[in-house]
Amino acid sequence: MRSVPAASLSVRHYGASRGSHAHEHFQVLVGLQGVLELEVEGRGQRIGQGQGVVVAPGDRHDFEAAARGGSRCLVLDTVDPTWTARAGRMPADARAGALARYLALSLEAGSAAALALLQGAALLREAWGPSEPIASGRPIDWAALAVWLRARWHLPLTVADLARQVHLSPSQFSERCRRETGLSPMQWLRGQRLAQARALRLGGMGVAEAARRTGYRSPSALTAAMRRAGETPERS
């Protein structure tokens, strides 16, 4: 993955071909033209003109323009941690679309690009509205949450499911997860799934049964996950 400066604004065109990737930074998208079909960690979303979304670091997202003409978006790549509580949220200010168009015109004009680059990130953050307050109640018992997961790998678990279990909103849980574990909720979830599968394998269980018990689509999916983690699964 490429590194980015503290904040980088650009105008990008998305064609009809499907793409998929993840970043180590936040990515903020606001639609300028057309419609972008976006799926972030399994959650579908359509980004039309004036609409926006914040993709958190590590969240895999698939994207494809909804029409032949493609989709054009203003994109902010940033490592600013204040975007954490805004991840997955739409802009609170209805004028976000007008702001995005102004920033896009400034970038394309050349002479005004410096001002847009200097103030654009802060203006977009303001358009998303204030971050939600962080819950300061009881601490999350991560070990207990991991135990709760073990009997539920057959379910299509979401961030909302995890948040509900610890009595937080999805955005609050996401912020706490990144702050306390250094991972996005879906990264933490995948790590727990792999850890349980690894424990079953070390206990002598075959790949097929370990994959079934931990919710992997197939034995090969588990094998691929272990290889991505730098492990070399034994055959069985």
The tally of strands reads 8
Computed structural class: alpha+beta
Secondary-structure element series: EEEEEEEEHHHHHHHH
What is the mean predicted local confidence, pLDDT? 82
The dominant shape is elongated
Under the CATH scheme, the architecture of the largest domain is Sandwich
Strand % is: 15-25%
Instruction: Please write the CATH class name of the largest domain.
Output: Mainly Beta
Distance between the termini: 34 Å
How many domain units? 2
Helix-residue proportion: 25-40%
Largest sheet: 4 strands, antiparallel
Weakly predicted, low-confidence segments: none
Essential attributes:
Jelly Rolls, four-stranded antiparallel beta sheet, 39% helix, 236 residues, single chain, 8 helices, elongated, alpha+beta, 2 domains
Describe the 3D structure.
The structure is a single chain. The chain is α+β, with helices and mostly antiparallel strands. The protein folds into two domains: 7-127, Jelly Rolls; 142-228, Arc Repressor Mutant, subunit A (Orthogonal Bundle). It is built from eight helices and eight strands; from the N terminus they run E-E-E-E-E-E-E-E-H-H-H-H-H-H-H-H. A hairpin with a 2-residue loop joins strand 4 (36-40) and strand 5. Helix 1 packs antiparallel against helix 2, helix 6 (185-202) packs antiparallel against helix 7 (207-213) and helix 7 packs across helix 8 (219-228). The radius of gyration is 20 Å and the shape is elongated.
